[in-house]
Amino acid sequence: MKNRYAALLAGATLFFAKAAWASGGLAMATEWSWARDGGRIFNSLVVVGAVVYIISRFAGPALKKRSKDIRDEIRELNEAREMAERNVADYQKKLEEIKAEHGRAMAEAKTEAEQIRQRILEQAEKAAQAVLSRASDQIDMETEQARQRLQKETTLLAIATAEELLKKNIGPADHKALLEEYISNMEKNN
């Protein structure tokens, strides 16, 4: 490090001396004078040395600190990106599980509703036409209530889980798009 400063100082001294001589600062000088020329060289060395010292003293540590800060920030950003990718994969897996559970719940509800409907129809056939009319109304009402209740429970569960996932990693625009997609899927299933 000291050798580099010494080389830099010697180069700067020669450059400034040559520049001073070329610019006419030593014009008409026919001999060397310590009082005139030595003082100029000494002053140049002092100025160059002071500049090198100030730069090495203050700019070097600042640049090293900035470089370290940038490396740390890049490392932290990479870790955050990796964690976000893991979270997205987990949330996608959970969302698929929720969709599968929703499909199973809907299938079970349809099966149960069909069983209820068949039992009520068998009972209605044995009764008179008036009882048949009331039983039909009751079947429709119970089927609708069972469907609504199941749909409500499934929807609340899906929304609660999705909301928790969305709060963690999905912004407002993504949240809106996912909600619209889910609602359209629910409408198609019904």
Show unreliable segments: none
* Beta-strand residue percentage: under 5%
Q: H/E order of the elements? A: HHHH
Number of helices: 4
The number of domains: 2
Whole-number mean pLDDT:
80
Number of strands: 0
Using the alpha-carbon principal axes, give the shape: rod-shaped
Distance between the termini: 78 Å
- Helix/strand structural class: mainly alpha
Please state the CA-atom Rg, rounded to the nearest Å: 43 Å
How can the largest sheet be summarized? none
Percent in helix: over 70%
Q: Could you characterize the architecture of this molecule?
A:
With 190 residues, the chain is mainly α. It has 2 domains: 2-75, no CATH class; 89-189, no CATH class. The chain contains 4 helices and no strands. Helix 1 (2-22) packs across helix 2 (34-126) and helix 2 packs antiparallel against helix 3 (129-169). The relative contact order is 0.05.
Tags for this model:
190 residues, mainly alpha, 2 domains, 4 helices, 91% helix, 0% strand
Write a compact overview of the structure shown.
The chain has 190 residues and is an all-alpha fold. 91% of the residues lie in helices and 0% in strands.
Describe the secondary-structure layout.
Elements: H1 2-22, H2 34-126, H3 129-169, H4 172-189
